[in-house]
Amino acid sequence: MSVESVFPALEPLLPRVSKPVQYVGGELNATLKDWDSAAVRWCLMYPDAYEVGLPNQGVMILYEVLNELPDVLAERTYSVWPDLEALMREHDVPQFTVDGHRPVGAFDLLGVSFATELGYTNLLTALDLAGIPLHAADRTEEHPIVLAGGHAAFNPEPIADFLDAAVLGDGEEAVLEITDIVREWKAQGCPGGREEVLTRLAETGGVYVPRFYDVEYLPDGRIQRVVPNRDRVPYRVFKRTTMDLDAWPYPKQPLVPLAESVHERMSVEIFRGCTRGCRFCQAGMITRPVRERSIEGIGAMVQNGLAATGFEEVGLLSLSSADHSEIAEVTKGLADRYQGTNTGLSLPSTRVDAFNVDLANELARNGRRSGLTFAPEGGSERIRRVINKMVSEEDLIRTVTTAYANGWRQVKLYFMCGLPTETDEDVLQIARMAKEVIRAGREASGRKDIRCTISIGGFVPKPHTPFQWAAQCHPDTVDDRLRKLRAEVNTDRSLGRNIGMRYHDGQPSLIEGLLSRGDRRVGRVIERVWREGGRLDGWSEHFSYQRWVDACASELPEFGVDLDWFTTREREETEVLPWDHLDSGLDKEWLWADWQDALDEQEQDDCRWTPCFDCGVCPAMGTDIQVGPTGRTLLPITPVGNRSPVSNPALAPTS
């Protein structure tokens, strides 16, 4: 395949599509390397639109890690909107990278990072546009190795037919190991062809190659077992975990988007993992153990990132950023350093019981006082015990009262609907809580103009969580409860007019549930949906519930199962789950015990501060949870001056 830029053919099409700037590349800090000097060539894809994909930290980190190697190049590709897809097909323009506008099919590896399962049809669009056979079994040495990563890769079975391999867990060290294997295989003249290089990857124990495993089914449709069909392949595939975050201070040169993106900020990941034990949260379970970046490491990344980008906001990222053991020192140190500049700080993820007004005041010291966001997740005390979200209503009211008394006017509260054991009353309690927030805020602030927004999403059971056995709530039930909730909010107009309500209907959540807990038989459904026009299913204007329902009705009866079998059916303890051979480090017996605790409405403490609960991760990893304080300080500790590129982006380096 030609490696020449397709831009001469692409450029005339761009005036005919929406947001053409997202396809032109050339962002600040982007890297374009000589093709012929590279021994291994990666194309990294985030399977969604540019505005969602470019800020993704995972892709950005791997892009930089790979491009630091002198004989390796990495370029990026994103999903194209349907308007450009139609023109590309009409004018024979293949899927391209935004860096060099090279054909994706010419690369050695196509690494796809899935944050959500609703991006699966986008993978098929990209493969088809790239001229890569949809089915891995039809590919030859001429085609890239298609690898999946990201959270959805912890159950890649629904897209097993379309993948050559999947990587579980952190990617920094994994991509380097994969690169070494492919480099050596190519240097040896590609012995044994595609089969051999995939076998070498599988032998590491950290790369899953679906074709090397056979799935056997019971007469009732359940899985009997999943077994290797090659001698050199392990029975279980283990996740990768990067333990020392300070050794991986990426991205050092964050990308700055040309088009508007969902996050207009420079982000620093301050720690990975979470031990709060929220039973619905796949991210918290699969990223254990907790690994904190040191305070000096955070300070250096913030300073270098701002100098390299000119952003005016720094997001301190993690699953629950205020849980960093030195978060007070981090925020005060950064606020001191950037006081008097245009640089603002934000914690996108804050728990009610980890929040305090001193922390919030440090974040708002430069005059930026936006709304505060908290996630009680469940409306009633009972349902919060079920999901192990140990936040009392008293905690919430006390927190927001303090915030309103200190000048905040807007609070956003996140909830879920359709949780296991949930009743109508659990959901209606959300309205009562929101009204109490308004009352408390008015009393604390002496003002009437305060607001509370409740945002509600549908619950989706996820693999490797205690809720992986749970029956998913039907969309009709979810939508009915949300209608009742809206009516309950409006029973008192004096309070209800200050309460905003945003929610997603239950239909996309059910399809996400099908894809998150499905097995290889669901691949037929995904392909049919795609062939029937399914694109960008994560966007409400493109998602079609009926298309998915019809595809399930067409493809699944042959196997004796249906949409409800994969979604609204509760699993039993002994059932072999599609992902049981993929090891997240969590002990399945511990997950089941926690599921039973949920049904009994029993809470479990955070194991960072209490004795071990034997979830299995630390012994499996040969490590311990990392927790401060380290006693270190931000370096350098001097405030930023007016001649600094941080306060004056015009002085920032251009490459």
Low-confidence stretches: 635-655
Report the CATH architecture of the domain at 6-235: 3-Layer(aba) Sandwich
CATH class label of the domain at 6-235? Alpha Beta
Structural class: alpha/beta
| Overall pLDDT confidence | 91
- The largest beta-sheet arranges its strands as 2-1-3-4-5-6
Shape: globular
- Rounded to the nearest angstrom, the radius of gyration is 25 Å
What's the helix count? 22
Beginning-to-end CA distance, first to last residue: 31 Å
- Assess the beta-strand content as a share of residues: 5-15%
What share of the residues lie within helices? 25-40%
For the sheet with most strands, the description reads: 6 strands, mixed
CATH evolutionary superfamily of the domain at 6-235? Cobalamin-binding domain
Please name the CATH topology of the domain at 6-235.
Rossmann fold
Query: What is the strand tally?
Result: 19
Domain Radical SAM core: 260-502
Protein name: Radical SAM domain protein
InterPro entries: CHP03960_rSAM (IPR023862), Elp3/MiaA/NifB-like_rSAM (IPR006638), Radical_SAM_N2 (IPR045784), rSAM (IPR007197), rSAM_horseshoe (IPR023404), rSAM_sf (IPR058240)
Pfam families: Radical_SAM, Radical_SAM_N2
